[in-house]
Design a protein that fits this description.
The complex is a heterodimer of chains A (396) and B (260). By secondary structure, chain A is mainly β. Chain A is globular and about 60 Å long. The two termini of chain A are 26 Å apart. The mean pLDDT of chain A is 91. Chain B is an alpha+beta fold and 260 residues long. A 13-stranded antiparallel beta sheet of chain B has the order 6-5-4-3-2-1-13-12-11-10-9-8-7. The chains are: A mainly beta (396), B alpha+beta (260). The interface between A and B is large, with 47 and 42 residues.
């Protein structure tokens, strides 16, 4: 606790000093949110307070420095045992002496989320440092984004920064060639990406090749040396493509990635989506996602499948799912909507009513509920926790 | 010998009479197409830069204020809008090409660029009474509407041409027709009435432009208000800064430019 307060003080002193420099913009937000879930007849809640401070400076005409620091603290139920979300069939396979290893902690943290320098030349942008990497056209799922996995209940929430060196070459007005290198302990283990982006008529497209070390875990074996679950790293090579455009008045997008694995079976991921805005301002969207790593029969879901989904090593436990979203601006500042995700493979469903309210110029409120309809053992079974989230955010 | 001062005075008076009479006589000969072309030229200079303050006022009197910069090139075919305030939307940007047929939005917190389909043009810009279509449609007055000149009328105490613009069959714009009052003196459309896409008798929005100033030899409205008749709300855009015919690179109007 002392260290947290001390680091916060140092941090404020640092940003005050930096702000005193010329040409440094200081902005960010504070958010307070409460999340709750009903687990086995008991309703648990955890409150999170997050302060994000952004720095941005144009050091010269063609050099930009950007960074942000996050300070997050948690109150309430800070230890969640993942086993409580799973059916008895699954948890009975876990030896009693290992049952305490599956606690998911909400620990206070402060960290440098992004810190990068961007240099713009005539036809080249070079970005070095911890930065956002956003790949693909999908709204909820991105087969090409091997760096992030979105929360399906809150897919637009910001993603963490990643260490990388990125080069974007402009090839005319509509084409760019991107190279990205995300360093790990060796060149062999580091992430590499080449991507061609372009446009034809009203369509944008990308062609992408990625190589990365995928750090899968076997959650049924604990590695006493590393004090973690047994890591099963293997090289993953992805060839993929994506597009976004318009067809018959609908906005459409697609994203595909074929994953060639070093040891395990190859698999592919596919996303196809469409959206439309009616004259009366109602917006609808749907997205289909297939992941051949997922299983078609929920009775075949294994403990490792669940753990890999909970720890965001794998985007979905079931093979096919459909996302639907509908939103209507009730007033200029209030939008109501609902999304739903259907696991086609196991016939389970979650519905997520949402509310977005602009309370003032620099404050907004967001809330959602998630209610699961699914048999025990399915992707969206009631056991996975009906609940919701209320978030208030002020920007400065 | 006649007094030279008297001759000069006579000539000046003759010129003044000509200056007063000729535009009126000429104006009577202008067709709807000619008038709307002049309006279009005025609305879409070769390039422009502006800094604007947009204030949304709801029925309950609540206000939201945004400050944004905008750049336009190729007579409104390319548009870029970048928000400066409030902090909530700082650095968010929208790129509209091909008269807003192609729209990309940039979200700085995730550094993600999302391509939007043309139906997104109907969406309100930051919850305002302006849609993306209203902001970036460029020369839609010419390409998407057929103009008919109606009887001249005074509007906002100024002598105006009055035009009715009916949407062409192949257009996908959100308005079935527009009624426009254009100041004869400078061709600024000071009032535009917008009618419902499906019901041409249903008046849904009114745009009023005022505080006309000559900037770089071009008359520009420093204040624009869009009144939404259906929702009973209004959005005002105040020009804080404006420049015409500024040099703008094509690189600005690309995905790379959007992220800068």
């Amino acid at each position: 606790m002392k260290w947290s307060i001390l680091s916060l003080l140092i941090y404020f002193l640092s940003i005050t000093t930096i702000k005193a420099q010329e040409n440094v913009e200081l902005f960010g937000y504070f958010e307070s949110q409460i999340m709750g879930a009903k687990i086995k007849k008991e309703f648990y809640q955890v409150n999170a307070n997050k302060l994000r401070v952004d720095l941005k400076s144009d050091l010269a005409d063609n050099i930009t420095f950007g960074a942000n620091f996050d300070y997050i603290n948690y109150n309430g139920k800070k230890q969640w045992n993942i086993l409580e979300y799973l059916s008895n069939d699954i948890t009975s396979t876990v030896p009693p002496e290992m049952q305490n290893l599956y606690m998911f902690p909400f620990s206070d943290k402060q960290f440098l989320d992004n810190a990068y320098i961007r240099i713009n030349f005539n036809d080249l942008d070079l970005t070095v440092g911890k930065q956002q990497i956003s790949l693909g056209t999908g709204y909820v799922w991105n087969p090409l984004d091997v760096f992030n996995i979105k929360d399906v209940l809150d897919p637009t929430y910001e993603q963490p920064g990643h260490n990388a060196v990125r080069l974007d070459f402009a090839l005319g007005n509509r084409y760019t060639l991107n190279f990205l290198y995300s360093p790990e302990e060796t060149w062999n283990h580091s992430g590499k990406l080449v991507q061609l982006k372009g446009g034809i008529s009203h369509f944008d497209f990308t062609m992408t090749a990625i190589e990365i070390l995928w750090r899968f875990h076997d959650y049924t074996h604990f590695d006493a040396v590393n004090m973690n679950f047994l890591e099963l790293p293997e090289k993953r090579r992805i060839l993929g493509a994506s597009t976004a455009g318009e067809l018959l008045g609908l906005g459409i997008w697609a994203e595909y990635g074929y994953n060639r694995m070093q040891y395990t079976k190859d698999f592919f991921e596919l996303v196809v989506g469409a959206d439309y805005t009616f004259d009366f301002q109602t917006f609808i969207m749907t997205e289909y996602y297939r992941n051949t790593l997922g299983k078609t029969d929920y009775r075949c879901y294994e403990f490792n499948d669940w753990m890999r989904q909970f720890t965001a090593e794998q985007k979905a436990i079931s093979r096919d799912q459909v996302y639907m979203f509908l939103q209507h601006p009730v007033t200029d500042f209030l939008s109501l909507g609902s999304s739903g995700i259907l696991s086609v493979s196991d016939k389970s469903f979650v519905i997520i009513p949402t509310l977005n309210y602009s309370f003032s110029d620099n404050m907004d409120i967001m809330a959602y509920l998630n209610y699961n309809f699914g048999k025990e053992g399915t992707a969206f079974s009631k056991a996975t926790g009906n609940g919701g989230l209320l978030r208030a955010r002020v920007y400065f | 010998m006649k007094n030279p001062n008297r001759i000069i005075r006579t000539i000046l008076i003759a010129w003044a009479i000509q200056l007063l009479v000729i535009p009126v006589a000429y104006g009577q000969e202008l067709t709807g197409v000619e008038i709307i072309k002049k309006v279009n030229e005025l609305f879409n200079p070769a390039t422009s830069y502006g800094k604007s303050k947009m204030t949304i006022v709801t029925t309950s009197g609540q206000k939201r204020t945004f400050v944004f910069e905008s750049w336009s090139k190729d007579r409104g075919e390319k548009n870029l809008v970048r928000y400066l305030q409030p902090s909530r939307v700082k650095d968010q940007a929208t790129l509209m090409l091909n008269h807003a047929d192609d729209i990309w939005m940039y979200f700085p917190r995730t550094q993600r660029v999302r391509k939007l389909a043309t139906h997104a043009k109907k969406q309100k810009m930051q919850g305002s009474d302006f849609s993306y279509e209203d902001m970036g449609s460029g020369d839609a007055f010419i390409t998407d509407f057929t103009p008919v000149r109606l009887d001249d009328e005074n509007m906002e105490e100024q002598e105006c041409y009055k035009l009715e613009l009916t949407r062409k069959q192949d257009s996908d714009l959100s308005y079935s027709r527009l009624i426009m009052w254009i100041v004869k003196e400078n061709f600024v459309p000071i009032v535009i009435d917008y009618y419902d896409e499906k019901d041409p008798t249903r008046h849904i929005k009114r745009l009023v432009q005022s505080n006309i100033r000559i900037i770089d030899s071009i008359p520009a409205a420093m204040n624009t208000v869009m009144y939404n008749k259906g929702d009973n709300t209004q959005t005002e855009i105040e020009m804080l800064e404006i420049q015409f015919n500024v040099p703008l690179s094509d690189d600005m109007f690309t995905e790379r430019g959007l992220k800068k």
